[in-house]
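Limitations
The structure tokens in this dataset are predictions for the assembled complex, not deposited experimental models. Users should treat interface geometry with appropriate caution, especially where small molecules or nucleic acid strands are included. An illustrative entry is reproduced here so readers can see what is and is not provided.
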Amino acid sequence: MLPTDEAVIHVVDDDAAFRRSLVFLLESVGWRVASHASAEDFLATQANSPDAPGCLVLDIRMPTMSGLELQERLRAGGALPPIVFITGHGDVELAVQAMKHGAFDFLQKPFKDQALLDAVATAVRRGAEDRSRHAQRDEAKARLARLSPRELEVARLVAQGLPNKLVARELDISEKTVHVHRQHVMDKAEVGSAAELARLMLRADPAALD
Amino acid sequence: MPAYPGVRRLLGAVLFLLAALAPARATPADDAAAVRIGVLAFLGTEAAIGEWSPVLRRLQAALPGHTVSLVQLDHRGLRDAAAAGEIDFLITNPGHYVELEAELGASRILTLDPGPPRAPERSIGSAVIVKAGNGALRTLADLRGRRVAVVSTEGFGGFQTIWRELAAQGIDPQRDFAELKVVGLPMTGVFEAVARGEADAGIVRSCLLESRAEWRTAFTVLGARSEPDFPCATSTRLYPDWPLATLRHTPPALAKEVTLALLAMSAARDGMEWAVPADYQAVHEMFRELQIGPYAYLREPTLMVLAERYWRWIAAFALLLAAWILYTVRVEHLVHARTAELRAALAAREALELRIRANQEQADHLARLSVLGELSGTLAHELNQPLATIANYAHSLIRRSDNGRLTDDAVREASGEIAGQADRAAGILGRIRGFAKKRAAVRERVAPGALVVEAVALFRGMLANAPEVSVDDTLPADAIVEVDPLQIQQVLLNLLKNGYDAARGLPPERQRLTVRIDEGKGDSAGHARIAVRDHGSGLDATARERLFEPFFTTKADGLGLGLSICRTIAEAHRGRLTVDEDAGGEPGCEFILSLPLAPSASEPPECRSDHAADR
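Predicted assembly:
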């Protein structure tokens, strides 16, 4: 993925010179880079702009809060961006642990500059995909949230492709009432067909129609 | 072995009593004129009294001033009376006489003369009689396993003489007869016993057989010998007749008077005749052969006799001996066992020491390895940062140059950072080198010789088979270096260990090491030189060139840090560590540690700036 205007690469490393060299390298190919001297520093800036796209380049060993601890903190907060860990000599075990906890990639120092740039680009793309998938899900959920419980029941059956007569028998209500509920569902969820409704519900919850 | 000792003793006592009751009897103590003659009453009372009465009559006639009496006693009684001095003369059989001669000093003065054709010295023998016509018994040897009748086993003519002849045939009458029948006196009982068949043979005095005609036809003599001038059949050799003997206390004058009186007796007039004393050598020979009487000692001290007599002592002694042997064997065994245990314990300890030493060497080696490992870990981690940083900047510059983003600011920033990181890396290396110099602050004034002696002792203590190390110290006694003794010893240990390794597996004479300590000349004037020389395989030119490089080693298990650290230490002491270029034509090589000599305590410290500039 080519660097985009909105994506920000966060570099978190306690070694100032090395951190600056990373920033210099990433900027060489056009990335917007944010530099953080510690995990705490990163968390502070993140509070101001929580949902910015991009990825983290994170030193696995740091004095106060380690890279692993930061990863854990982010995972707990529900917003886990893609993380590329930088590990030192003999930190393979830590790296494996990080990967198990959802890290995107790790690089062992000294690494080739191209390896870092590739990892960052892939991470940013993965982040963007995750972000759009999350956005669609959230939007679908928002639309379905407008429905009353009864309308939601009707909507699930309609989305499964049942005609009004069967829906009425299933819910033990009159076919006329089903018709009214169905009209409301279409209006509130802003869909035009039963097929469209089914896609919306699956976006919000992949297991919704099971 | 008296068959009836009680009877015999009683008989003796009765005879003695009869004699004592005689009216003329007086004690020897208060009557010097009394002459008492003891006679062996062997033939029985009736015979004895009558037999010797001619002697009594003759002496009473010949010695008018004396009271002569006969005292009739058995063997034992006669001996006791003679020993007690109760009799002045004695008349007994030849055997008994010889015994008393030996024991009490009895001395014969006359021998009974039996009258022609018998001579006094050949008048007594014994005959073994058997029933006439007993074809089974022809010689004395045939008596083995037979029943034999005798009067007693003490008699001379009735037993001892025939005993001698039997012994010559290998027959022991006590052992080899089926029965030794003792019939007692009178001797005629022997004839009766044989006649009745109670005995197969009987032993009697010679000439007794011939005294009765019916005996001569009823009995024959076994093993009869041909003895000239002897009228009777005899189975034995002939012995002298009975003697009359004096005792030690007998007055010689009296003895002479008695001798003269009795020699004057004649058979025709007195019925008895005496001759000059005969030779009793034959009796001695008999006793000696039989080992009885005075020769009993020949028989007694045999091992069997001793064993029988002293068996309790022997058994006790044997028991003690056995106990002692047992004890000795046990002690010996224990000593062996303990010695073996001790030896095993020593061997085990030796093996343990060897293992400890081996382990110590291993541990030292591992310690060095782990120190190096830590060091290299730190080194790698620390150097990683600046190197990675430099790499990032350099690569970034190339990228920016490629994509047109290379600005002057970027070049300046990157170059500045790269230079800074290069400095940082140099700093790290400097710190590590400084690590080796950390202890350089310690300085003590010591004699180089003392350092060497201590290092050699340490070296020898470290190794199980330390080679010989000779130290030749030609430095003046007051030569002092100012060093960290531990570090210098570390260097010396390293050099000794290298020398040892260089000659490992070579013959012992090439394993020896030499340490020479002297004062340097020329370049190294003012320095103490400690030269460690080995006689090992030496170094090639390449090895010599790279010798002091870190991580250079010629050893399979070496780290290549020893000499490099040693040189660092030497230089930290303003000294030098070199290898001798010319080994003097001999194999091996020589490492020389030179250390500046310190000024003596009284001198002011010299300026050292020139030395510092050297490095």
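Some entries come with short summary sentences. For this one: The mean pLDDT of chain B is 80.
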